[in-house]
Amino acid sequence: MKKLSLLFVILLFAGCAAVGTQTGEIDAEFQIIKWAPLLGTSVITGTYKLKNTGNVPIGYYKVYFKTTCKDGSRYDSEGWGPARINKLSSPIAVGEEWSGPIMFKVGCKEVVSVKISDWKIRRHY
Q1: Adjacent-strand bridge partners of 43
Q2: Tens digits of residue pLDDT in 62-85
């Protein structure tokens, strides 16, 4: 009986250790594909891309943009969304890419750069 109990404890411990190591890693790459000022306005439009480089589906993201103007002023803006705006409950699968729109207003006439400064992602449950 003691041998059976010891075997049970060993198997239980090994099972818990194995389950504890099966954690998912959420990660993504973001990239601006193109951007341009909307003619005659202070609105920037364009497209960015995100790729799921982790090992779990992405269900929600937020991306932060930093815009620099010719006069040296800087503006921060953000884009966000469920993983797919046209399919609200559909996550971005592992290895999959998705493109999103850029559209925000800045307070200058001539923009020299638009960069992604940060992002946040959440896994799909």
Answers
A1: 105
A2: 999 999 999 999 999 988 766 555
Where are the alpha helices (H) located in 1-125, listed in sequence order?
Answer: 2-20
Number of domains making up the chain: 1
Examine residue 14 and state whether it is found in any structural domain, yes or no. no
Asked if 48 contacts 63 with a C-beta cutoff of 8 angstroms, the reply is: yes
How does strand 74-82 pair with strand 97-105?
unpaired
CATH code for the domain of 45: 2.60.40.10
pLDDT, tens digit (0-9, with 9 covering 90-100), for 34-73: 999 988 888 999 999 999 999 999 988 899 999 999 999 9
Domain assignment of residue 49, given as a range? 25-123
Question: Closest Cα partner for 102 from 31, 41, 51?
Answer: 31
**109 within a domain of the structure (yes/no):** yes
> In this structure, is residue 34 part of a structural domain?
yes
Q: What is the pTM of this model?
A: 0.73
Q: Which residues pair with 78 in a beta bridge?
A: 64
